[in-house]
């Protein structure tokens, strides 16, 4: 995030509500994360106690939300440029950037630790890698450097079924890898279609999802 451009691009701070903090987690993206994680967990050839399954999916969902909060913190300056994103909590001034960062980091730590304690540390490590890949590799590194950012960065959104499977079994297998590949191949066309839709919008070349 460019600190120099931040004061000029963000709106005057307003009062944040619970809905603004919820929006930081990108709930629509979280819903896909929950669905694919559930598929991976349900497809695992082992019995998982319903409560443990619930905790595992919750942790994966919270990890996805944490990634979204870190993404909104870092991208506040470019989000302010495009009509579709300028109303988000940080560029609109309702949530301060440091609040979004703190929320993202806190939820990341909570989700990874709880998943490790509830299931296994391999699953927790995969969740930590997923958060890191989305927040650092995609958001901070790829997004402003190459138009192919969504192709490579799509891996982060494709990993939840593998995390769900490993949370249930404690090991890797080909079935969840194929699920990851399916979601990975679906991601670029989805975002390219969105890019075409907003192509004429101010700031679209610099701003992505």
Automatic annotation (TrEMBL):
Coiled coil: none annotated. One of its GO terms (biological process) is heme biosynthetic process. InterPro entries: Protohaem_IX_farnesylTrfase, UbiA_prenyltransferase, UbiA_prenylTrfase_CS, UbiA_sf. Pathway: Porphyrin-containing compound metabolism; heme O biosynthesis; heme O from protoheme: step 1/1. Keywords: Cell membrane, Heme biosynthesis, Membrane, Transferase, Transmembrane, Transmembrane helix. The chain crosses the membrane at residues 29-46, 52-74, 121-142, 149-168, 174-198. The keyword Transferase applies. Pfam families: UbiA. The keyword Ribosomal protein does not apply. Its EC number is 2.5.1.141. One of its GO terms (molecular function) is protoheme IX farnesyltransferase activity. Its main location: membrane. It is found in: Cell membrane. It is an enzyme of class 2 (transferase). GO terms for cellular component: plasma membrane. It is a multi-pass membrane protein. Gene3D superfamilies: UbiA prenyltransferase. It catalyses: heme b + (2E,6E)-farnesyl diphosphate + H2O = Fe(II)-heme o + diphosphate. This is Heme o synthase.
């Amino acid at each position: 995030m460019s600190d120099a451009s931040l004061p000029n691009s963000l709106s005057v701070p307003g009062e944040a509500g619970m809905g603004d903090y919820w929006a930081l987690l990108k709930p629509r993206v979280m819903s896909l994360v929950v669905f694919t994680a559930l598929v991976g967990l349900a497809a695992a050839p082992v019995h998982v106690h319903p409560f443990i399954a619930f905790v595992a999916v919750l942790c994966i969902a919270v990890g996805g939300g944490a990634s979204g909060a870190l993404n909104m913190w870092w991208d506040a300056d470019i989000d302010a440029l495009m009509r579709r994103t300028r109303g988000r909590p940080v560029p609109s001034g309702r949530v301060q950037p440091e609040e979004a960062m703190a929320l993202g980091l806190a939820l990341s730590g909570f989700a990874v630790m709880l998943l490790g304690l509830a299931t296994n540390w391999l699953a927790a490590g995969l969740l930590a890698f997923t958060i890191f890949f989305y927040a650092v590799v995609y958001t901070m590194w790829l997004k402003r450097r190459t138009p192919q950012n969504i192709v490579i960065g799509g891996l982060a959104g494709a990993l939840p079924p593998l995390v769900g499977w490993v949370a249930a079994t404690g090991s890797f297998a080909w079935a969840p890898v194929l699920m990851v590949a399916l979601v990975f191949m679906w991601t670029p066309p989805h975002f390219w279609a969105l890019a075409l839709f907003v192509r004429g919008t101010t700031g679209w070349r610099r701003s992505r999802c």
